[in-house]
Amino acid sequence: MDLAWMLPAIVVVPLLSAAIVGYFRNTWSKTTVSWVACGSVAAAFAMVVALAVQYWGAAAAEPIRSGLTSWGSLASLGLVADGLSLWWALVVTGAGLLIHIYSTAYMREDESYGRFMAKLNFFIFAMSLLVLSDNFIGLAIGWGCVGLASYMLIGFYFTKPAAQNAAIKAFVMNIAGEAGLFAGIAFIYANFGSFKFDEVFGAIAQGQGVAALNLIGILLLIGAVAKSAQLPLHTWLPYAMEGPTPVSALIHAATMVTAGVYLVSRAYPIYEVASGAAMTVAWVGGLGALFGALVAAGQFDIKRVLAFSTLSQIGYMFLANGLGAYVAADFHFFTHAFFKACLFLAAGIVVHHYNGDQDIRHMGGLWYRDKFAGLTFGAAALALIGLPPFAGFFSKDEILLAAFSQGQWALFTIAVLAAGMTAFYNVRLFSLVFLGDAYVAPVRQVGKKRSRKQAEAAGADAQAHAHAHETPAAMKWPVAILAVLSVVSGWLFFGHVQLTALAPSFPTLDLHAEAINPVVAGLSVAVALVGGLISWYLYRPEGARRAVELNPLHKPGILYNMFYVDTLYDFLFVRPAKETAQFIGQLFDPRGIDGVVNGLGALARELGGVLRRWQNGLVRSYALTVFAGVVLVVAYYVFYV
Amino acid sequence: MPVDLNFTIAAPLLALAAGALLILLLDLLFKYETIQGPMYVAAIGAVLVAGWYLVPLWQGAADPSGFAGMLVMDRFAAVYGGVLLIAALLAILLSIGRAREDQSGYLALLLWAAMGMVLLGGAGNLMVIFLGIELLSLALYVMIAFAPRRMAAREAAFKYFILGSVAAAFLIFGFALIYGATGTMSIAGIAEAARSFTSEGAWAVGLYYKVGVGLAIVGLAFKMALVPFHIWAPDVYQGAPTPVTAYMSIGTKAAAFAAMARLLVAAVPEAYQPSFLLPLSILAFASMMLGASAGIWQSDLKRLMAYSGIANAGYLIMAIPGLGLDGLSAAAYYLGAYGFATMGIFAVVRILEADGVDGSQIANLKGLFYRQPWVGVCLALLFFGLAGIPPAGGFVGKFLLAIAAVRGQAWIVLAGLILSTGISAYVYLKVIGTAFTRTKEAPQPEEGAEPHAPTRTAAQVVLVIAAVGTLVMGVLPGPVSELVRVALAGM
Amino acid sequence: MPAFSLNAYVALSAVLFALGGIGVLVRRSPLAMLMSIELMLNAANLLFVAFGRAHGGYEGQIMAFLVITVAAAEVAIGLALTVLLFRRRPEADVDQVNELRL
Q1: What is the ipTM of this complex?
Q2: What secondary structure, in 3-state letters, does C24-73 show?
Q3: A78 three-state secondary structure
Q4: Distance from CA of C8 to the nearest CA of A (A)
Q5: Is A600 on the interface with B (CB under 8 A)?
Q6: pTM attached to this predicted model
């Protein structure tokens, strides 16, 4: 049976649904909106499954192709279902479906419920387009659209200034990344004359255009780094947590932020040749893994801990990609999507209990009130730590093994240390949230706490009082399913299943069914246990460090401040820009511009002042500009040889 | 010498001129109140007839050259003529409902300006370039001032006139120097002469020629509004009546670009284009950066569009250093995409003006989406087009231009494209955000202004055409880009 | 007739052109600006005529006439715009006109 028609349908159905839901968001009842929004994603998921069955069921895995739109002789935008794209599409639509269902309960009380579901649908469209495209243009369009969806959803609570700022921050960083991606694609076209993966990679296999591949690899990496919040373009991710929790789970943990991993995996023939670019990928990933894990240990916002954990885990995936272990990277993406989405959704339940307060210092003892949240959160955390037989163990082990077997000792050490830190911050997080005594707000802090209340709680508030923190079934089921997957998806898919599933996408690689290496596995588990035990000693209910951090007078240190990277950026870029502008301003006008202008937007105001003096409305002054331009142009030509 | 009258290729121009005369005649012969509608019909008809005569030229006329080589209506001219005629058509539609006096003069000038623009695309001689520039400029000077009781419009017209005349003086001084160096005014002759300037195998040009080309670039860059010759644009765009602003933002740019492309292809041998045209690349880079970032401080939508136009003029220049089929077809495509987006945004301004609101104030867009959802959605789509975000046509256009720049190794402008796209996306998203901000207060109509239904309907038609055009060029670029490519490939 | 070299004509017209340009920059009266622009155009005309004579064709002379004609039209429009803008002002000073800016 020819199922090729399903490919465009997978992309178009969520887009149509987004348009329809967006249009009828105020006229339809919330139930209708939920059914349409979830139904479209369910349909997309079903079609992906059908394609997957056809593709992997066949004796010789033959990619299923379909056209989408034509760009004339320049390029035709097509879609393809091969091992890699189906593997990703399964997670995107599958996890997407679960999170849609979760959102129907989580966001139900929000007055902009329809708007939210429409945007979520739009995201599924964009991400499907990204992973199913058979060419760089489609990938880039999907890339831009997921960025747009992310921007819209981070700023979903647009009345909240923090959310607006976070959205803009994410947007700017992503634009920087897109610049790299687009430049990379432009170079690809310049060298190979095509946008199609097959044709470009075919040309590379024949040894064409090798000289430019390192540059192309680095440019693509810039795009990947920005999208996947890797060092040094990671600063937007913690702020992105201002978005609603399902958004954090779907976009900023499971799927969108891993798009960089997909890009590198997809473009693997480039990195196979461009060893310099590949090593850069590996080091960016390794350092990111350690950095994220360290910073996560110093955060007090439950979602920020998870955000840095995401940074760290994606670092592992980059590390694997850089070492040529693409299958390991994609496998880790697969398990990570489940356990990290589970963690976020469970965190959403936790936050519901605290009426939207995300500060883990204000939690404690939740285990005794909500075993379900504790169990699911704990299972996912164990998967994240990577203890056998939980999912993360298998995928992380493959990555460590890649570093080990290639003799990359520095990277291997970093990765193992990061594994220890992962256990450390997870135990800390779990202990602070679920164990010990419940937090009692000091009287003087009540006012502060109220002001902290997130807009997210506005709807949940009334509900929370009425139902006494009963978690709705629509929230429980997705979390439960994800928790089960966090436990089983590792050993279920380890070894031959994921190798045969993904192998056709990496035809030039020598893949062998890998077994657990006892040395590597033993070492990583041992380090994780040590990290976890130290953390337990420090943060157990009567732990010394716990008491210090829970003290309201405690002043958080370097980890809490994310190694001052933001401060550094401020120092390196924002302040010099302001000062330069001020200098230019004084150059034009010795008296200075209306005194000294302080604060945010000073740069804009300074440059605006320059512009105002230039564009002053006087025709003779304009003529002077024109003459100056003429003099410069003529001078060039007079001296041109 | 036999008189070389080739009316087949001159037919589009003659149709426009005849339409203008017919409109003036109608005004003389009939009562003013009854003839308003027919005048608009005549104007639209003239543009359509001109388009009709353009079709065979698009397919490639047997003899595209005529009038002793003065006029070369080849496929290049036909493609740009097509873009220009669409702009003229939409501008006429947008003009419906404008201040109801001097209608005939206004429409006649609009058609004559269109004639000048199409003429520029088909110029085969420096004289014709000068004639085309002056034809469109003189018509536009007057059209800009066509806003009774608005001092701003008069000020804009005066500034544009003074600066435009100075630029024209530079242009013809440059032409005179080129003529002096080559001994001919015909572009084909210049091409031949330019390639004969060699010494010891290298291209060696005299001072007159170099400075002449430099001044010609200045004159045309002024019309395209490239930094630093852009300085008139924001004031003029803001002061001019909205339909005129819309018309000139596309028409002048496209026509001047076409003339520049024609001139520079001939005047500079291909191998020397990158180094000889370096100033143009720098102007383009500066235009992109200023055009994108100056938008941050604008509270006036028409001014913002002026800066956007400045940036877009810079993008068009990307096609020039690596001028070839890629560049020219990309530029034509981009002009189409940019034209639709710009026209549509000015149509939104007109829709607001139809209700008596000052549509050029960005603040008055606040809550537009909740009052007129479709207008808000279209506005967002059109700004996406300007920013180059899919699914709008501007994305494809920018992509094609970027490819042309890569082929031509034009790294300066490519860097400018990437940087400025980021900045401008921020600026445009802020405007879109304004339109999508919930507010209870509708903007207040200006004193003495009354709602005018025909204006609104006409502007809505333009908006729909523009939005559909943008969407088609963004989602199904194949047919359009093939059309342009095939048309240009025959050259 | 004294034989000047072609370069002398070019130099003269360049000087005239520059004078016109300076006039546009320094004069605040719109009429003086118009005259300065005329000077710039006529400097170009001189160049066309000189080159036309040197090359021996008619093109240069024709172009000079074309420029004169267009310049006449331009002045007509320029004067009309000047009147339109300055009619209600006490003095014709272009530095008083800057309602449109930034």
Answers
A1: 0.95
A2: HHHCCCHHHHHHHHHHHHHHHHHHHHHHHHHHCCCHHHHHHHHHHHHHHH
A3: strand
A4: 18
A5: no
A6: 0.77
Query: Where are the domains positioned within chain C?
Result: 6-93
Is residue B116 assigned to a domain?
no
A627 lies within 8 A of chain C by CB: yes
Q: What is the pLDDT of residues A74-127, one digit of tens each?
A: 667 788 888 888 888 988 998 889 888 888 888 878 778 888 888 888 999 999
> For residue A14, which of A87, A119, A86, A115 has the smallest C-alpha distance?
A119
The reply to whether A622 touches chain C by the CB within 8 Å rule is: no
Q: Say if B142 falls within a structural domain.
A: no
First to last CA, chain A: 68
Count of domains forming chain B: 1
Quick: pLDDT tens for A456-508.
Answer: 444 444 344 434 467 777 888 888 888 888 888 877 777 766 777 777 777 76
Q: Is the dihedral of CA A185, A186, A191, A196 positive or negative?
A: positive
CATH number for the region C6-93 comes to 1.10.287.3510
C37: nearest CA in chain B? B166
* Residue B172 to residue C41, Cβ atoms within 8 A: yes
Cβ–Cβ < 8 Å for B155, C97 = yes
- What tokens does A226 get? 């920005």
Contact A337, A435 (CB under 8 A): no
Q: What part of C 82-101 touches B (C-beta under 8 Å)?
A: 82, 84-85, 94, 97, 99-101
CA within 13 Å, CB half, A25: 21
**B88 belongs to a structural domain:** no
A533 in reach of chain C (CB within 8 A): no
Interface of B with A in 258-287 (CB under 8 A): 275-276, 278-279, 283
Closest Cα of chain B to A634: distance in Å? 6
Per the structure block, which two tokens stand in for A151? 């921007």
- Asked whether A125 and A11 are in contact (CB, 8 A), the reply is yes
- Whether residue B115 is contained in a domain is answered as no
